[in-house]
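Reopening this one. Same input as before:
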Amino acid sequence: MGFFDKIAEALFESDLDKKLERVNNLKLDLALDLNLELDLNPEDYAIHAGRPEKPELISPRLVPQRKLGTPIGVTALVHALAHIEFNAINLALDACYRFRTMPRDYYSDWLQVAKEEAYHFSLLAQILKNRGHYYGEFLAHNSLWELAEKTKHDVLNRMALVPRIMEARGLDVAPGIRDKLALLGETEIVAAMNIILHDEEGHVKIGNKWFNYVCHSRQLDPEAVFQALVLEFALKMIKKPFARATRLKVGFTEKDMLFLENI
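Same output, byte for byte:
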């Protein structure tokens, strides 16, 4: 099987256990023998990502809001985090499968992201199991994958908006959530979130790396392109406050931050 066939096997798999197994079996050096295909239209590849029948997906505004201080509220939060990580697996795989004219290191980077997202999901799924629950038990929404739909036609748009908007949002809010859980004595969840936060910084950094690469290869100004794409596609997704220091550490510029802070 070729490189993209192996990626497709994992991306299109809907059985949860088989999907995780397929992702974990992907070799990071797969891309080293990749014969890159040129002049391909990314929209030629159906945006179909395998997922289990549950959780049921509804509008974000209809997802029940539960108080973090209650046991069911904490469990629902873990489920929401697991759902984000599951979608992130598919997003990383789709970034490999769809955009076929990038350097080999691009595919190695996003395979690494997919494997780390699968690990994060497994950590959270185990916490749910330890509490007598399971992934798919609660309602969830699909906004992260909807952004993948909007960016399917161009790797520039994908790198600009998914890692730099959706995933970077986690860098802003997750530390505060983790600290609240620590006060509640939820040491197991806090330990998992520390791992996830560390890795997610790397994922956003990878997104920034390849966004800048594509901009420079097209002789575009990354800061101007980012501003234009945010205003066109993601204005409603920008939420303050930002983890400014962390964002600067992973590749956002001072100009990027001033733009976001003054929207």
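So the earlier flakiness isn't reproducible anymore. For the record, Residues 4 and 97 are 6 Å apart (CA to CA).
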